[in-house]
Specification:
alpha/beta
């Protein structure tokens, strides 16, 4: 049956940045579809773990600073030790720094690029190697942004990192599709997360943003549930290198 293609029973998913916001929402969606979850990041994700376990799935919390690629081998080793395999990777962890272009610092450039682009590259590489060794392929899902398509303002490193994620998604698909590994991305619109708190707290900017969104509201973590389950499932077996926009219609304006 067609609905069976969306089931993730017996699958193991790594979700970075799973402690809150979009990462937590996607981890719960994958668990509801049947997957066990390994949540990776610097923040305590035990709250997410309790919710995953309440859905009848297993949860592993892995504390790691993804800004340092040296942590990658240990992440994969811990997941394999607990679950025996890995089937899905969601590269969600990210950060943002804001400053005028003329004043943008090397520190703010490096901090964002290391977490938003370098970490997904090397974690994906390690997980893809596991997919090849296991046989049977796997799913890698990057979290891109509307700024994978637009320039933005005062976010030089964030825009560059998310444009890089879109390009990396296509590059990886070109090299890995024939191995049965699906690499795709989700580009959320303006979502209610910690990264957008500053914008939502500004009544002028908040109003400008919401008026441009055809759906007339900011997105919520649960708005990504269907997209992440689809891209992680067999229903997306012939979808490669695509960036799926979930933005309430923002890019249509």
């Amino acid at each position: 049956m067609i609905l069976d293609q969306f089931k993730l029973d017996g699958k193991v998913a790594i979700v970075t940045g799973a402690s809150r916001g979009l990462g937590k929402g996607m981890a719960l969606a994958l668990a509801e579809a049947g997957a066990d979850i390994a949540g990776v990041g610097v923040s305590d994700s035990s709250g997410t773990g309790e919710m995953v376990q309440s859905l009848g799935r297993r949860y592993q919390q892995i504390t790691a600073d993804l800004g340092d690629p040296a942590c990658v081998p240990d992440i994969v080793a811990q997941v394999k030790a607990t679950f025996g395999r890995v089937d899905i990777l969601v590269n969600n962890a990210g950060t943002i720094r804001r400053n005028d272009f003329l004043d943008f610092s090397e520190e703010d450039w490096d901090a964002v690029m290391d977490l938003n682009l370098k970490a997904p590259l090397f974690l994906s590489q390690a997980v893809a190697r596991e997919f090849v060794a296991q046989g049977g392929g796997g799913k890698i899902i990057h979290i891109a942004s509307m700024l994978s398509f637009q320039g933005g303002i005062r976010v030089a490193s964030y825009t560059s990192s998310k444009s890089g994620i879109r390009g990396l998604t296509m590059l990886m698909a070109n090299e890995l599709a024939a191995r049965g590994i699906n690499v795709n991305a989700i580009a959320p619109g303006y979502m209610v997360t910690d990264n957008t708190q500053q914008l939502r707290d500004d009544p002028v900017r908040n109003g400008e943003i919401q008026r441009r969104i055809p759906a007339d509201r900011w997105g919520l973590p649960e708005d990504l549930a269907g997209a992440v389950v689809f891209l992680a499932s067999d229903a997306a077996n012939y979808v490669h290198g695509h960036t799926l926009v979930v933005d309430g219609g923002w890019l249509s304006r």
